[in-house]
Amino acid sequence: MKTTLSGRRAIAVAASVGAIALVLAGCARGGGDVAPTGEDTSAAVEPSPGITDTTLTFGISTPLTGATAGPGNCTVDGALAYFGTKNAEGGITFGDGKTRKIEIKSYDDEYNPEKSAANFNQMVADGVFAAGLGLGTPTNRAWREAAIEADVPQVLVMTGDPIFSDRTESPVQLGLVPIYQQEGAAFGEALVANGQPHKVAALYQNDDYGKGYLQGFKDAVAGNPNIEIVKELSYEPGPASSTPNYLEPQVTELAGTGADVFFQAVSVTPRVVENLAKAAAIGWTPIWFLPSNTASPGGVLTPAGVTETTYPGIYAVGFSEAAAAPPFAESEAGKAYFAAIAEYAQGPEQDGKAFPHCVWSWIGAQILEQAFEKMTEPTRDSFLDALYSIKGFDAQFAFGSIDTTVDGLPAIQTVSLQKFNGKGYTNVDVVG
Fold first, then answer.
1. Fold for domain 38-178+325-415?
2. How far is residue 175's CA from residue 152's CA, in Å, rounded to a whole number?
């Protein structure tokens, strides 16, 4: 089942103000296409920090150590691999006619908001041009307001929090991945579509991440007499949630409801592994829903001992091709991806397929390249104008076209519900 989001918000700027802005600036941020002129305009403006005639520095704050280090390292490695290849080919020709190489600076936040906020201060001190691609809702939120105040682009972040794509609330931000509500809704719609009665138990992270997933699901099943949510439990994210078996009591309590569907919105990979193993050990075998960032076959299901027959079905929402799937590795684009990962990735034991975040970062790097090629000036404003103008771009490995022009929506908007088949995932329309 593929779905594509439609706009939900109007741009909160009066038409007269927009018209004035167009006259004064030539193109309002977030407006239409910014066509590259090929002319050298750099002499007419003061370059922003982090860009020279030959380089651009991009920062990534993400968990490189700790419980979410697996996917966190991927958010850096996909970009390192993509831009490493481009740099080896000579660099990227920007819209101002200059060819630049992209330098990636990575910062470890350990999935800790305080460290993430400190990392932003360090990125500013290090003179990055822009930052983004990093994993996590609380960690990206920790420096969102500071980025706005400093006018530093915080873009293509790997969080489904809608606030990052709201141009009024977040004028220098943009999300990369579909919003959490859409993932939750995709599962809810497919569960309703099978027409059978179901009892649902829910475990969710008590923040925008967990609440967003659950709300999307609830909206999709609202009013359907076949779907009953029998119990909801939440947990507090933070240092304590990194403790082994932290969620075991909640899983045991939810198992006692006899629910045949387990809707789990948990972001910490080791806790998901434990939950899958615990449920099977106590004989609770419901249908599972897993968020896209904690559904990796190699990084989550295999370590949990899950096979195709362990549960009636494990479902997740996908918005990109899976690097672990044979067709991916056999394609020319897939071969180039794996070669680049092997040469440029720096994460421990990185194979580019254990977690989908490597592919997502590769897609994000392609979107950045599109923006760089459209930039007509070496400034952050020109970059954001260009970034917000991309439409109909078919990025390698992404489901559906990239569209960054809609206020309130992330760059990737098309998703598919998928079912685990023992090795990877297969797109489906109905749960069952």
1. Rossmann fold (3.40.50)
2. 15
